[in-house]
């Protein structure tokens, strides 16, 4: 039995869900999202509760059961609260600023790095050393944050680079004389 799959997904007030075939569409105050489940699970909406049931007892059906329930829960969270990733920049002269829809990063290269925010994701730079990525799609928010981080990953000797807020960087000791 899937512990995650057994739990029904409750819809808060202001959120509506509709199922057509294997596709569920969730609408809320921040927007609308859809998810198409595999044929191994059955999606049902009763009152303000979405339940997911496996079709059969195969291993694949049980795997899809928990995954589908989590995806639907993420849809509900996305259209109500949204998702957010915070990045911080460490290093002398490293900074970030927003210019319209473009994030300008000064990361010690001979040129500035321009990162254009994709559709559905909002990027803000409250300080020169902080970047906040927000949106209703958890996967897209995480992917954009990872792409920004890839421009200058934190290095283990001085810890310079772009890191997630609260991320621990294992530090190494430098050369000895």
Automatic annotation (TrEMBL):
GO MF annotation: an example: rRNA binding
Q: Name one Pfam family in it.
A: Ribosomal_L6
* One GO BP annotation of this record: cytoplasmic translation
- Cross-referenced InterPro entries, in alphabetical order? Ribosomal_uL6-like, Ribosomal_uL6-like_a/b-dom_sf, Ribosomal_uL6_a/b-dom, Ribosomal_uL6_bac-type, Ribosomal_uL6_CS
Residue stretches making up the Large ribosomal subunit protein uL6 alpha-beta domain: 12-82, 91-164
Task: List GO terms (cellular component aspect).
Answer: cytosolic large ribosomal subunit
**Which stretch is the leader sequence?**
none
Q: Is the keyword Ribonucleoprotein in the record?
A: yes
Give UniProt keywords alphabetically.
Ribonucleoprotein, Ribosomal protein, RNA-binding, rRNA-binding
Function text = This protein binds to the 23S rRNA, and is important in its secondary structure. It is located near the subunit interface in the base of the L7/L12 stalk, and near the tRNA binding site of the peptidyltransferase center.
Assembly behavior? Part of the 50S ribosomal subunit.
To which protein family does this belong? Belongs to the universal ribosomal protein uL6 family.
The protein here is known as Large ribosomal subunit protein uL6
What is the source species?
Leisingera aquaemixtae
Lineage of source species:
Bacteria, Pseudomonadati, Pseudomonadota, Alphaproteobacteria, Rhodobacterales
């Amino acid at each position: 039995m899937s512990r995650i799959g057994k739990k029904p997904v409750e819809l808060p007030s202001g959120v509506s869900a509709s199922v057509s075939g294997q596709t569920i569409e969730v609408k809320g105050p921040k927007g609308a999202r859809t998810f198409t489940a595999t044929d191994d699970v059955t999606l049902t909406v009763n009152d303000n509760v979405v339940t997911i049931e496996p079709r059969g007892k195969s291993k694949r059906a049980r795997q899809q059961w928990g995954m589908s329930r989590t995806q639907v829960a993420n849809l509900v969270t996305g259209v109500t609260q949204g998702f957010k990733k915070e990045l911080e920049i460490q290093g002398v002269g490293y900074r970030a600023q927003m210019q319209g829809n473009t994030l300008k990063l000064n990361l010690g290269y001979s040129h500035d790095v321009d990162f254009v925010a994709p559709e559905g994701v909002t990027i803000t730079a409250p300080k020169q050393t902080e970047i906040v990525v927000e949106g209703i799609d958890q996967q897209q928010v995480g992917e954009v944050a990872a792409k920004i981080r890839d421009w200058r990953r934190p290095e283990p000797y001085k810890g310079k680079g772009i890191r997630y807020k609260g991320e621990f960087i294992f530090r190494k000791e430098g050369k000895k004389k």
